[in-house]
Amino acid sequence: MSHQLEKVKELIQLRQQARLGGGERRIESQHKKGKYTARERIALLLDEGSFEEFDMFVQHRSSNFGIEEETYLGDGVVTGYGTIDGRLVYVYAQDFTVFGGSLSETVSLKICKVMDQAMKMGAPVIGINDSGGARIQEGINALAGYAEIFQRNVLASGVIPQISGIFGPCAGGSVYSPALTDFNIMTKGTSYMFLTGPKVVKSVLGEDVSQEQLGGASIHASKSGVAHFATDSEEEGLMLIRKLLGFMPQNCLEEAPLLACKDPFDRLEDSLNDIIPDQPNKAYDMYEVIGAIVDNGEFLEVHKDYAANIIVGFTRFNGISVGLVANQPKVLAGVLDSNSSRKAARFIRFCDAFNIPIVTLVDVPGFLPGTQQEYGGVILHGAKLLYAYGEATVPKVTVTLRKSYGGAYCVMSSKHLRGDINYAWPSAEIAVMGPAGAIEVLFGKEMAASSDPVAFAAEKESEYKEKFANPYNAAKYGYIDDVIEPRNTRFRIIRALQQLATKKLTNPPKKHDNLPL
Ligand code: HXC
């Protein structure tokens, strides 16, 4: 065998060794836990055969506690690039088979390299987390490594899409990288995120709590809002990342892909002309409206199980990628509260950062009153939503279906927050407050003095409704551009989006904003 052939053979062997990560025993243990290895995850995520790996021969440089005796090619993370639906993406996947995927100086350098590369190329970065946290033997260098990653997450925010999959442990300070990224996907039963684990919780607070209860996927998807999605399997999570990216541009200077659409753009939905119940306090399901108007009824909902009184997610209108925000009358009557405000605000800011138009469907009775909300800072959280709509410069199309009262009218992409096209259904009620409340405030004393308070209130309410609780009063002032037939909503939204395709609007120059945090 020639000298060169021997060298090639050695290369092939080294590659094989690197691909085994921490070895077959640990790969088997990973599989027994119902988890894929880092390389298997990348293979499932990317277009077949598109992955090119970086830094396969990197090894850790630590020498504490005998760790110098134990080295693995590639150290605890697999990094590189590939394509998803033919589009360039950068990826890293922590390798739990190597020191539990813990973060060493060299692991951090590898992750930072793909992040830097993604920024230079203007391509999304996807990180798969499955790690025991900072590599304990490395001490400060591991902590420094985390901070280097966080800094890059911050600088990349709003420049390139950043998506995190959490497919195993993610604890301690390591939770902050996913928290800084745009979307977190957790797998049910195999992933958890928390700042301190159950043992510390027990010793500090005396609380008994399991890992799952403290920071499992379902908890973060429904209670904390840290996870945008909770999936039943890793495959589902990885396919979701692929799907999600399809709605996004590669970076903040580009537009999302425009898809060919077979669903007729002028499709009429007769059922919508009769969807609003006669009684104002009766709910209908906003998902029915969404399903009826978007392309092929397809909607990728974000934060499905968190603050369900507002619905947010990605969809398409005639192939145009859109961020959809809608009040849900079926949950808490669609009222705005702290959590729903924060949820929608974050989603709107993502869409605006990445040039994705926003369509808003309004049916909102107002903001939720009470001490619980006030003590929880609903003023600030509501202001976040207002801020997000107000600063957004992407095309904004709003349709008011029924209620739009008080501050919630202003907030929900109103004309005054630079809504570009504001439509209303004939069933819309746009006023300072609902009829019953208004009559109580205006005529409370007269009502009490009246011989028939019920008849008195009914008469005044009907007068109020006629005057204010309709779309024509707002349309009279041009705050509503047109009152549309509900069955025509899909067509009118598509026309509006097409008209707004060349929209140019910029905010005043500034160092950065001061969002009410
Ligand atoms: C070095 C680690 C490690 C770590 C795990 N391993 N975590 N090595 N540093 N942080 C190694 C184990 O020694 C073991 O090696 C292998 O990874 C697998 O770990 P197991 O414990 O056998 O796996 P499992 O039973 O599944 O438990 C997983 C785990 C547990 C729950 C993550 O390993 C664990 O509690 N690890 C420590 C977590 C932690 O406290 N990290 C520091 C957090 S503080 P062998 O050779 O047997 O395969 C932190 C600060 C960051 O991260 C701050 C950033 C700002």
Describe this structure in words.
With 517 residues, this protein is of the alpha/beta class. Helices cover 39% and strands 17% of the residues. The protein is built from 19 helices and 17 strands. The strands form three sheets. Strands 10, 11, 12, 13, 14, 15, 16 and 17 form an eight-stranded mixed sheet that branches. The chain has a seven-stranded mixed sheet with strand order 1-2-3-4-5-7-9, with helices on both faces. α4 (105-121) packs parallel to α5, α12 (338-353) packs parallel to α14 and α16 (435-449) runs antiparallel to α17 (453-467). It is elongated and about 105 Å long. The chain binds hexanoyl-coenzyme A (HXC). Hexanoyl-coenzyme A (HXC) binds at residues 26, 99-100, 102, 132-136, 143, 146, 169, 171-174.
